Amino acid sequence: MTEFSGRKGGPIQVTRPSLPPLEEVMPYLEEIWRTRQLTNSGPLHEQLEAALRDYLGVRHISLFANGTLALVAALRALKVSGEVITTPYSFVATANALLWNDVTPIFVDIDPVTLNLDPVQVEAAITSKTSAILPVHVYGHSADVSGLKDIADRYRLHLIFDAAHCFGVEDEGGSILRHGDMSILSFHATKIFNTFEGGAVVTSDADTKQRVDCIKNFGFANETKLVAAGINAKMNEFQAAIGLAQLPHIGAAKDARARIDALYRERLSAVVGVRCHERSKARAHNYSYFPIFVDSDYDLTRDELYLCLREHGIYSRRYFYPLIPEFSIYQSLVDSSDRGWPNAIQASERVLCLPLYPDLSEQDVIRISEIIKQYQRG
Predict the structure, then answer these.
(1) Catalytic status, residue 191
(2) Residues of the chain with pLDDT > 70: what percent?
(3) Any idea which residues are catalytic in this one (predicted)?
């Protein structure tokens, strides 16, 4: 038995949801059955908000049914309008949330190393219609928070971070979630911390937290006062129960992910034509993903390697492919001849995320690495 507790046969998925021991969930379920409060900021919801606030080291957090609704509500709470500058290199929910708020996404290129928004490109895209910047901390690696804040401050723009990948990530000053007007988390089943589905808005401002809480509850400030055209985006008590049971295990999950990350780097370090994505200089990582670059001096293209691994029962993912503006519904929003995102295009064509989850076995990491190694040129 290795220090990685492995799966027993079957295909290897790119991720596998972490679940707390069932016996640790049962007391929370018994509490739900006792109180009969299933939603509407019940006792478990309030416990989880307090527990996450303390764990993450943030001032205010508002729980949501999922991360996309959290982002939609955050944009609405800040009354974002017109155009918002964002990245083409993300999951489509980032830009979909803008369309749901009748806001036009303006896609600019990314840094070729970090794969995060390039502040130089952001500043060059600002117009009189720009109201906000929406960066993504890709793969849990921090965007240039100081550079983006400087731009946002000088042009009086809102700064909202899509931090779906960043649960537990810290820089030298503390939680990466403290930056900007708001940061948005996802607690989807694929994330390091999950509540099956779920999400949150993090902010340092109490009034902003109050507005967000109203918006996620149909717009009600109290039983008789409606202050906004809100939505129903509340996290229910069952989701909160799963989160409370998950939280004590996050440290062990991060440690397991760190060991897997290190083993991949060791086994792939000498493979010609394959590069591991550089870690950021964060004080605390969460090892959410393991992306590699498949370069032109490798014997297979990225897509050929993707298919090759599938033939071996290994399901990697091309995060993020296609780029958001390459989807048909977004092509009408951008000049089809523009494609002014050469770094994002290259990443989209070369990045492959390998399987990574706490109970992925050492033997499987080695097997995946050996399959990749055998196709190196020469």
Answers:
(1) yes
(2) 96
(3) 191
